[in-house]
Amino acid sequence: MNISIWQARYYDGLSAASHAAEVTLGPSSLTFKTEGVSHSWPYKEISQTLGHYPGEPVRLERGTEAISVDDPAFRETLKKTSKTSFKRRPLAGRRLLFWLPILLIIGLGSTAALYFKGIPAASSYVADFIPPSLEIKLGHTTEKSLLAAFDEYENAEMSEAVRVIVERLMVGVGETPYELNVKIVDAPVKNAFALPGGRILLFKGLIESTETPEELAGVLAHEMVHVLKRHSTKGMLRQLSTYMLFSFMTGDVNTIASIAQNLGNMRYSREFETEADIVGTQLLIASGIDPAGLRDFFGKLSEDGINNETPGPFSYLSTHPVSEQRVDSIAAEEESYTSTEPGAYRALLAGVDWKGLIACTCKETHNHDDNSTDPRTNHPSK
Predict the structure, then answer these.
(1) What pLDDT does 267 receive?
(2) Could you say which of 61, 99, 155, 378 is the most buried, measured as most Cβ atoms within 10 Å of its Cβ?
(3) 58 and 48 in contact (C-beta within 8 Å)?
(4) Nearest Cα to Cα of residue 276 among 227, 335, 340
């Protein structure tokens, strides 16, 4: 009997880094070897969070650990091998997703009030069944709607600097179904925001308030975690009406456009922000970037007591209220990696005069203000 060995990536749940692994499928358990150590996962203790759709990598989770396999044949082999004992999450597939809200209603009772209290608790569960392609479509539509009132900031040097930082951060991300796309918004606001599906909006005002590229990398790592952990999608699901939830899950374009225009009340929960802080710190370390940049930047916001007044359609964006407790949690996570070898952190944008680059963007902002134009309409202000 031939035993198939599948190449995979293993995530230990303690860092953002992944490790090469070899997986075999047995009658009652999955076994894999990574870095010379063998592991055995009983199927009854495993849940499948990705790979319900053709073309997606299969992701299996056990507690905080995870295994990801890209080979398309693995999905079918896993289904055949583990069909009698594998603990699968129910309702996989678009058709079953359509009926999930109805099952939630039955489970939560006959009253609408009780039903709507159950949605927040179920949103994270439902989000696991939304294909990345639908998230990407929503993110693109949302971005297009929001940027209709503002210009994208066009500065070749700054755009290249952001691209290099994102490229470095992707080293620590590992495999992901999302293609991270960062756009700089031409507005003097100290803010950044992650949309579903991998799109990140970075305001020029935030870039101008950084003192080092490591500080900007810290903010981008924080936002990337919001994308990778599907925080935007989960937050959105908590607020959808039943009708919009049905339509969104069936991929209705008009509903997606409506959602994009009505995300105004969405703010990340404290739980999501804390996770983005901690995992963002881990991502920086895994990418070889000094995580002190994230702590220092948030520390400045905490000391300054910044309360952004974001104009126009961006008024809903999370202003990332920073408390001393959040800064302390970032510092604690950083200290847990004190064993990192000296020199493990490599300087970002070596040879680039960051303060000079920032000074140029600030000068452009000043000249823009002198022209007395309204950034929401790009017409002279009255």
Answers:
(1) 61
(2) 61
(3) yes
(4) 227
Count of residues making up the chain: 382
Q: With beta carbons less than 8 A apart as the criterion, state whether 232 and 115 touch.
A: no
User: Could you give the CA distance from residue 309 to residue 307 in angstroms, rounded to a whole number?
Assistant: 7
C-beta atoms surrounding 199 within 10 Å: 26
Q: Which helix (H) or strand (E) holds 50?
A: strand 47-50
Residue 207, SS3 per DSSP? helix
| pTM for this predicted structure | 0.60
Q: Which backbone phi and psi does 284 adopt, to 5 degrees?
A: -60, -45
80 three-state secondary structure: helix
| pLDDT the model gives residue 114 | 38
Q: How far apart are CA 266 and CA 178, in angstroms?
A: 21
Q: What is the DSSP letter of 150?
A: S
Asked if 143 and 199 count as a contact pair (C-beta separation under 8 A), the reply is yes
* Inter-CA distances, 123 with 101, 245, 256, 267, Å: 11, 11, 17, 15
pLDDT over 80 at 250, yes or no: no
> For 6-81, CATH number?
2.30.29.30
Are 218 and 280 a contacting pair, CB within 8 Å?
Answer: yes
- Give the CB-side neighbour count of residue 186, counting CA atoms within 13 A: 21
Question: 199-226, pLDDT tens digit by residue?
Answer: 999 999 999 999 999 999 999 999 999 9
Tell me the two tokens of residue 138.
């929503």
Does the CA dihedral 271-276-281-282 come out positive or negative?
Answer: positive
